[in-house]
Amino acid sequence: MKKLIILLLVFGVALTGCKFFSKGNTELARNNAKLDSMLKTEQVAHDKEIEQMKKESQAKIDSIQASCQSQLNRYYIIVGAFKVPGNADSYLKQMTGKGYPAKIVNLRDFQMVSVNAFSSVREALNQLGNFRNEVNKDAWIYVR
Fold it and tell me: Are residues 133 and 83 in the same domain?
């Protein structure tokens, strides 16, 4: 009988202990799931922040490159000069539609449409004849 009581006590303690440990395991699993969820949320927020920083950095780089490019390209081939901004915009669309890297260059009250820009006068002079034949016979070079 003593053996039976001892055996029952051992089983009772063992079963109670197992429930205690299994309860701890479910709480541990629940806490791990919460931590994983929080970590994923933080990772998504961090990725968005990095993406935003990349976009801002690229915008700054593009701005700097455009500024440097405009300083390097001082010789513009001009195919039209307009006092009315709408006319310049319309002509600019025509030129970009034909595939030229056209842009508007402002000079006092005029908006000039440039079909290309060069860093040296020699390059500009070499191309001037082509633009006079293809675009406007009165094309000329503007030096900024």
Answer: yes
